[in-house]
Amino acid sequence: MKSVPVWVYYTALRIVLFAAPLAILLIAGVEPWVSALVAALFGFSTSFIFLRRPREAMSQELYDARHRSQTVPHVDDDAEDAAIDAEQQAKTDEQRPSGS
């Protein structure tokens, strides 16, 4: 059983890899736009190098979700289908000429 979904884990790590260098650079007194740019480059490069497994696991989960061989059944599908069928039957009955 997984305690945290892969996408949450991956996203949290990416945020930390951006926020930590940004905070350090801002505390050091570097210009905010330079700090943001350096932190973004650092976060991208380190996540690309060190987060390969979570990235691949997340992409596999996304692929599996998009390419399911069977549709996911919903609990109320049968009830909705029955209501639609009943409505169509009622319309058909109204359109038929009466036998008198």
Automatic annotation (TrEMBL):
The chain crosses the membrane at residues 7-27, 33-51. Keywords: Membrane, Transmembrane, Transmembrane helix. Residues 88-100 have a biased composition (Basic and acidic residues). Residues 68-100 are annotated as: Disordered. It holds the Pfam family DUF4229. Coiled coil: none annotated. It comes from Agromyces atrinae. This is DUF4229 domain-containing protein.
